[in-house]
Design brief:
This protein is an all-beta fold and 297 residues long. It is built from one helix and 15 strands. It has one domain: Beta Barrel (Porin), CATH 2.40.160. 2% of the residues lie in helices and 61% in strands.
């Protein structure tokens, strides 16, 4: 395999991909998706899932079943070709479990691929909940042969409006490289319509024991069942990123910024629209996502 490495010095430690934290609610656990970029929060579509209200976070059964259909287009520099993607994600709450599923088809770097993923978020008690998700691609070079991500969350403070999270992940790629990661993060719900979220993640890629560090910050304004706007910025190092059969980028820095709107058009349905910009020393990527969601009884 051909590996492309930037000319600047190697980073000393690694933080992994900025995955949005599972908050024990429908579609709040990031799907275990493509090796799109470790900076991506929700790899099925390049936009983070908006965070729910604190009241919903306290009671997962208050959330109905949700179905989301999305399409995405991305334009890349350096002659790497445009991306396209369509997919469906869904969740269903039953007892203390929130079951999630995802199916996506896409074309990236001139190669078509398909991905399937499933997950479960489980509330242990009023203060603790955790999530586990697994997924696999169809052999496309930029999709995982297999990946698994797990998070444990604890609600803190008198009003339980601070959620601390600890996570771990494993990713095995078709080219044989692997990623192992650990992460720590937090989400704070203000009394008004503001939510602040952040995460730091350490990743080790092999072969080569490439250690990288990544982090992200996100700010959400708005309320569930009305309108929510999320701004997010992620930055840090990446160990490996496959950009086609036989070619991978290794040990480099990247940045990603996104702005997303989730708006209810009716009592049980609405739209999600987002734009983003991603850059590394080798190429730039700009794109947009449009989705429709339904909340079902």
């Amino acid at each position: 395999m051909r590996h492309l490495t930037p000319s600047f010095p190697r980073a000393g430690s690694t933080l992994v991909h900025a995955t949005a934290m599972a908050l024990g609610l429908a579609l709040s656990t990031p799907p275990a998706h493509a090796q799109l970029s470790p900076l991506e929060p929700a790899l099925a579509s390049p936009q983070p899932v908006p965070l729910p209200d604190p009241e919903a976070a306290q009671d997962p059964e208050a959330r109905p079943t949700e179905l989301l259909l999305y399409t995405s287009r991305q334009r890349l520099s350096a002659g790497l070709g445009d991306w396209s993607e369509v997919g469906v994600r869904g969740s269903h709450t039953t007892g203390a479990h929130v079951l999630q599923g995802e199916l996506a088809t896409m074309k990236r770097f001139g190669e078509s691929g398909r991905f399937i993923g499933i997950g479960d978020t489980y509330s242990f008690d009023a203060d603790w909940f955790g999530s586990l998700s697994v997924g696999a691609g169809d052999g496309a070079s930029y999709l995982p042969d297999f990946r698994v991500d797990a998070f444990l969350h604890r609600k803190l403070l008198a009003e339980r409006n601070l959620i601390a999270s600890l996570g771990a992940g494993y990713y095995r790629a078709p080219d044989g490289h692997t990623d192992r990661s650990v992460s720590i993060g937090g989400t704070y719900y203000f009394s008004g319509p503001w939510i602040v979220q952040g995460e730091v993640r350490l990743n080790r890629s092999n072969p080569g024991r490439v250690d990288t560090q990544q982090q992200f910050l996100a700010l959400t304004w708005g309320r569930d069942q009305q309108t929510q706007v999320t701004a997010r910025h992620a930055w840090g190092g990446e160990g490996y990123q496959t950009i086609g059969v036989g070619t991978a980028l290794t040990n480099f820095k990247s940045h990603q910024t996104s702005l997303n709107l989730r708006h209810w058009l009716g009592a049980d349905w609405g739209v999600v629209a987002g734009v983003e910009r991603y850059s590394n020393p080798f190429y730039r990527r700009r794109g947009a996502t449009l989705a429709l969601f339904w909340e079902l009884p």
